[in-house]
Amino acid sequence: MKFPSIYQLWLALVKVGNRFTFPLLYALLATICGLLITAEYKDLQSTSLLTKGVYLGNLGLTLSLAFALFSESRGVSASRKIAGNIFIVFLLATIGFLTNPFRREADILVLVILAFAFHLLVAVSAFSSSKENNGFWQINKNFFLRFATAALYSAVLFAGLSIALFSIQTLFSINWEGQIYFRLWIIIVGLFNTLFFLSGITSPIQQLNADTSYPKGLKIFTQYVLIPLASIYLLILLAYEIKIALAWELPNGSVSVLILGYAVFGILSLLLVHPLRNDDDSKWVKLFSKWFYFLMVPLLVLLILAVYKRVDNYGITESRYILIGLAIWLSFITGYFIIKGQEQIRIIPISLMFIALITTFGPWGISYVSKTSQQNRLGEILKEKSLPKRNNEIRNLVTYLNNKHGISSLQQFVTPDLKAIDEEFQAKADTASKFDNSYLLKWQARDTVLSMMKISKAYEPEDLGINSDVVKYFYNLEEDIIDVAGADKIIAFNSNMSHQDKKTRSFNIGKDNFVLSVDTANKIHLKSNTNVTLVFDTRTLLSNLLKVNSYKVRNDNNENSYDVPANVMTIKKETDLYRFVCRLEQINGGPESGDRKHLQKALYYSGYLIIYKK
Q1: Could you tell me if 9 and 57 lie in one domain?
Q2: Per the UniProt record, which residue ranges are transmembrane (predicted)?
């Protein structure tokens, strides 16, 4: 007896397999490697190879899919198909040889950019001619809808099977391995999701160029969801631009993310409604399409200023390089569509793919430019006088260069040969039994370079101007136990008040109004409407505490933490009408650094001001 549904499923599977053989093989490679990673591994080297299998499988999937679609639409011969797929294997092997994300974290971003570029290649591979605009739009509409549907089906399937596995575990007392759900997710995403997506690609593909249908649901989604969201972004950004223009100041660096968000929503909306842009029945779409790129011009100015501000302060890193690249691309696209019109929408993925590809290699590439920029910063900072802020910047830059580009990127700053040190640490990392151990070795490599530069690996609290090695912590022996007999008012305070929105405490005793505040010089101020002005100097109290070595060490695993009698933690003052008791519950601090080490500074203090009326 035949089951039609199973039989039809098998036929569909065979059809997809024959049509997209190589994409499915790459998906299978990535899935198998992903499953093996979840098993117990012996060393980092094995995990590194399996991880390469995952990302090369994903890159191969998109590359071979793009080539398959191109071959089908252009009628490429079988021999050229074989040659093309051999070239893809060679290209993937080259990428695998040149990249090592476990040693150089910057390679992770390079691989992400390559994956993004190859996805864009899929978008333009089937219909690359300027005369095939409709086919280009139709196939990418199908990609968009099929991807959304595949994601929904995969999520439902994963949820359903996970519940089934959990039910079996609960009802039959079967102990599944903890990784079983992750492995299930890998199989569904790697195989089911891929098969489902590929099975929905129209065949024969050339018929899409004559298809003029437009899904009503897509029109509603774009017209009433995406375009309104993009419009909200636009209003916010234009209002912000007016604000900074009136204030005549540079924009906040984070505004670049909002501008890119608006550009993404806007361009995606324009692509989805492209066939309706001249439709008189869709006036809102027509208006948005007409003015979108013109309204991008002032936002591009804002974006360029925001990027300049971020780069000017800290040089170029990978994230800032991407911002620069996107700003250049967005400027090109805006100018192109304003001048040429919006007929050739293929220019969007083609130009973005070109930008993405050229940023992955060469002396203009993301890794080289970012590394060189931060090396130059480190070289300049090393010339400065040794101060906590300078030393912390050096630590940050050494950490960045070591993690992102490998220890060899620091060779120009030290005399010993780092190649041998790199090989030694890499050999240890390859045989490390845990990821944590490999990262620990990476930190040890960083500390080795810091010691060569005669920089301590411990960070110094630069903004506090205090030597962290001699900070002491004093606590009131009667902490939070207060005798309130006879007190008219008790006001809590702490040193952080000077940095908070509400910097003062106002209160009344009878008809007298008081305002309590703290400053950054370790002083507590009390003023009243009766011209009472008092200052409680915690610096003097801290100085007295630091002179005594007989206080009991507090039982909290910190040898520099002490319990102090309540009377020692108290500052008393009087006026004609009131008696004030400033009682500290805790105070932390020590000698200042540099030339002011004879002075004391509190890092933090808290306590109560107790007021008695005479």
Answers
A1: yes
A2: 20-41, 53-70, 82-101, 108-127, 147-168, 180-201, 221-240, 252-271, 291-308, 320-339, 345-369
Convert the pLDDT of each residue in 575-586 to its tens digit.
Answer: 988 999 999 999
The verdict on residue 357 lying in a domain is no
418, 407 contact by CB (below 8 A) = yes
Quote the CA–CA distance of 81 and 71 in Å, as a whole number: 7
Buried b (16+ CB within 10 A) or exposed e, 162-200: eeeeeeeeeeeeeeeeeeeeebbbbbbbbbbbbbbbbbe
Domain that holds residue 183: 4-210
Q: What is the DSSP string of 381-443?
A: HHTS---HHHHHHHHHHHHHHHHHH-GGGGGGG-SS-HHHHHHHHHHHHHT-SSHHHHHHHHH
Q: Where are the alpha helices (DSSP H) in 99-132?
A: 106-125
* Maximum average pLDDT range among 181-190, 237-246, 444-453, 490-499: 181-190
Q: Are residues 65 and 200 in the same domain?
A: yes
The residues that bridge with 527 in the sheet, in sequence order, are 515, 533
Question: In this structure, are residues 422 and 408 in contact, taking their beta carbons and an 8 Å threshold?
Answer: yes
List, for residues 262-306, the tens digit of each pLDDT value.
888 888 888 888 887 777 666 777 788 888 888 889 888 888 888
**Number of domains present in the structure of the chain:** 4
Which residue is listed with tokens 């024969």?
204
Same domain, 68 and 199: yes
Residues 25 and 155 in one domain: yes
Write down the residue that tokens 């109560």 correspond to.
608
Strands 561-564 vs 472-476: parallel, antiparallel or unpaired: parallel
Q: Is residue 264 part of a domain?
A: yes
